[in-house]
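Technical annex B. To support the medicinal chemistry partners, we prepared a structural model of the target in complex with adenosine-5'-diphosphate, based solely on the information shown next.
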Amino acid sequence: MTAQPPSRIVAIYPGSFDPITNGHLDLISRGSKLADRLIVAVLQNQRKQSLFTVAERVEMLTEVVRPYPNVEVGSFHGLLVDYVAARGANFILRGIRAISDYEYELQIAHMNRLLSPGVETVFLMAAEAYSFVSSQLVKEVASLGGNVSGLVPPLVEEHLRSRVAK
Ligand code: ADP
């Protein structure tokens, strides 16, 4: 019997990350312990209006994931499964906060399995402390002058403050 090479887990964590929140970061931290390599990938989505450009989001993410040596940051457009193949990944990581996330995520996971049967989507439950945190809500609160410290990394808080001031 020939020995099988050890299988490596290369996971893609895709999203808008507009901007990254502490909920995303918690998922990255936990995901980095499960995967050999974790690639956080910003989706370039022309249909979705964003506060930060893809380059700004990638820059913030890169800074924030610096403490995790097996985590890298990228961006993509088009089909996620094509990006997964291009990066030699075999898992997709997503987070679930509430039932509303579940319904959406289930559809996407089924579609991605149909498009690329070998790729598994793995879900992590949001940390209790961040289960109500979304980029959208953080942006709304920040734009109205509310305090979002503790919900986003300090670097993101600074960027939000200066963007809102403009
Ligand atoms: P998308 O536009 O693809 O939903 P997001 O940046 O909003 O991009 O989210 C990316 C992924 O991170 C999704 O799986 C989402 O459910 C998850 N996520 C978002 N916020 C949190 C959070 N506070 N805790 C855990 N997971 C989260």
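Notes passed to the chemistry partners:
The chain has six helices and five strands.
Residues 99-115 form the longest helix (17 residues).
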